[in-house]
Amino acid sequence: MRHSHRFLEIFLCRYSYDSLLIISTRREKVATTMKLDPGIATVLAATLAAFVSFVTLLVTIVVSWRAEGRSAHRAILAPYLEKLSEDVYTVIACVLIMCERSELGQDTKEWQDRAKTSGKRIDETRRKVRYYLPGLDSGFRQLSLASDHIATLIPIPGDASDVLLRAYQVLAKRINETIKVSYRSGKPPKLWRQWFVERAAMEVVQLWKDRPNR
User: Fold this and answer.
1) Distances, alpha carbon 194 to alpha carbons 23, 78, 90, 138, 208, in Å
2) pLDDT band at residue 25, thresholds of 50, 70 and 90?
3) CA pair distance 115, 123, nearest whole angstrom
4) CA-CA distance, 2 to 8, in Å (whole number)?
5) Of 187, 69, 68, 195, whose CA–CA distance to 133 is shortest?
6) Cα separation, 175 vs 169, whole angstroms
7) Nearest of 17, 21, 13 to residue 63 by alpha carbon
8) Contact 132, 188 (CB under 8 A)
9) Strand, helix or coil at 214?
10) How far apart, in whole angstroms, are the C-alpha atoms of residue 204 and residue 192?
11) Who's near 71: CB < 8 A, 6+ residues apart?
12) How many CA atoms lie within 13 A of 50 on its CB side?
């Protein structure tokens, strides 16, 4: 992206230089063709040159401003990314182990506690990045509740816990992809990515609402 900005600046500067050359070499010809006074032609040429220079400056400022905005966005997210990614992975890994151990009749308390601890950290991070990662708030909130939800469902006969687990896996994948793209681009998530995360979160919410009773 930095190279493309530099290329644009060089192109605009070259364009301005070429424009000045054309204006200078053809000034007399324009004055003769249009029967303008040479003084007026000079004023027109200078005005056009000033306009081209202004446009070049304006575009350079805009490009620089956008680059600074992207850098600022990355700088804000950077301190949270490593731990957030680890916590999301931990929650999904632990609830998966809970489901597997439950099928074998083994205790799941340790893994529930680990998932709950990571879920609490996700919720804390959610509050700090919600304005820089719009559209992900509901997804983070649902992941923070995953340990308790899975713990509630695994004793119930049937596949309700497995279905909810798969929904959590989809949600985590979409959140990770969205954060990765947002950081690389230096911009908040695009609306369609926000919608994908929101849809996955709503699927989790609906499955929890429709959960079977004990």
Assistant:
1) 50, 20, 23, 10, 21
2) low
3) 12
4) 10
5) 187
6) 10
7) 13
8) yes
9) coil
10) 19
11) 186
12) 6
